[in-house]
Amino acid sequence: MPRNTRIPPALGEEQFHQAMESFSDVLVAMGEDLKTRDNGQILGDLATYARSNPVSFLAGSAAIGFAAMRFAPAGSATANAHLKTAIQRAGEE
What we know:
The chain has helices at about 15-35, 40-50, 55-90. By secondary structure, it is an all-alpha fold. It folds into 2 domains: about 10-50; about 60-93. It is extended. The chain starts with 12 loop residues before the first helix and ends with a helix.
């Protein structure tokens, strides 16, 4: 099924561009913030967020879990194919 690359009709081209630019700025700022923190600070902030917003934390966790499960089988299938090839080659020697 081809992807629809058209701009949503509710947004004008300029508004859509501004929204995407703003979103990318937020992602860059988050990335820079993560670079300057240690793991303990990040986990502490995450625990605080989970306590104050349990529903959104669980929803986000579920979304991350579903995404991980979506990509996990593809990786394991590739690993199994490489393992079978290696076993076949070892048996030929």
